[in-house]
Amino acid sequence: MMMTDLCISAPGRICLFGEHQDYLGLDVIAAAIDLRITIRGRKRADRRFVIDLPDLGAVEEIVLQGELAYVNKRDYLRSVLNVLRRKGVAIPSGWDVVVRGTIPTNAGTASSSALVIAWNRFLLQAGGDPRAESPGEIAELGFLAEVAEFREPGGKMDHYTAAFGGVIWLVFDDPLKVTRLDPFLKEFVLGNSLENKDTTGTLGSVKDRVLLGLGEIRKAFPAFNLKGPLTREAVREIDKLEPLIRKPLKGAFVNRDLTKEGVTLFTRDFDDNEFGRLLSRQQDVLRDDLGISTPKIDKMIDAALAAGALGAKINGSGGGGCMFAYAPGCAGPVAEAVEKAGGRAYIIRVDDEARVEL
Questions:
Q1: Dihedrals phi, psi of 175, to nearest 5 degrees
Q2: Which of 161, 66, 72 is nearest to 111 (CA)?
């Protein structure tokens, strides 16, 4: 059934385990958070979309006439429409819509993916398409519109987290496997460093260096891969690589194994202190091996831990953006400490999937 008035929202996300792993085909555990993108609309009688973006001080107008040309860099509003129409989704009319968000933008919390997922669900729901009720299909459509359409280096973690919500474990086999994990988690503090970052540049840099390292090791061990064992012989070959290649390659294996520990933690006996320890151990790898943290984020993390947080790490592609700290029972003091260190703090919890708002 097609609708005349509709409101859809989708969450941002934090990566609990497996940062910089999804595009390498390695497991990830991520959580949707209660900062969201909301799209509210009213059906029009014509085929024109008038999209008010008050957070950006902009208005977009789109007329549905064949394949849409892109007029903005990473033009997600149009790319979603193009992808959906190629997939046979009927979009019989235009809409007047307002897009608002509480997710920090360009800060590593997947604001763009939340927008893409919310827009996909909005258009599917508006046209009465049954795919609106399939989070897996919504996630794949989101990946196509945001990453594949613009040939970006990212993976699928953000889209699946926004579409499914809660805490999910992603295994990038064929087919991709999604496991919902019990959300034992309490309060977090998200800290925006207010430092601008280059998401695609950072993702590309880390990915390229890891893949280059893999290629070098395969000259000696053709079957070597990131999912297999890290043998002593392979370590000796890795140690011959220059540091810019060696460190992120080794870091990928450490993060892979920390994610396995995270899976065990969530599926057996969850412990807040152990969870915090694993978060901080990842930060060591992301800072020292992948080189994606910054002095300001390191300062914010130190302040959060000194204020009582059980663990903390950078979130997202890095080079700026956000960190988060696990702060059960002490979120207020931790948020205050993060702000004193120069960040903008948000107390957050795990939240639901992309959904219809009443």
A1: -80, 160
A2: 161
Burial class (CB in 10 A: 0-12, 13-18, 19+), 178: middle
Entry pTM: 0.93
Composition of the chain by helix, strand, coil, percent to 5: 40, 25, 35
Question: Do residues 244 and 216 touch, judged by C-beta distance below 8 A?
Answer: no
CATH 3.90.1150.10 fits 5-183, yes or no: no
Which residues 6+ apart lie within 8 Å of 244 measured at CB?
209
Q: In whole angstroms, what separates CA 235 from the centre of its chain?
A: 30
CATH superfamily ID and name for 188-348? GHMP kinase, C-terminal domain (3.30.70.890)
CA 239-241-244 angle, 5° bins: 110
Tokens coding 61: 């107008």
Kindly report, as residue ranges, where domains of CATH 3.30.70.890 are found in the chain.
188-348
User: What strand order describes the sheet that includes 322-326?
Assistant: 311-315, 322-326, 188-192, 344-348
Q: pLDDT for 28-61, tens place per residue?
A: 999 999 999 999 999 999 999 999 999 999 999 9
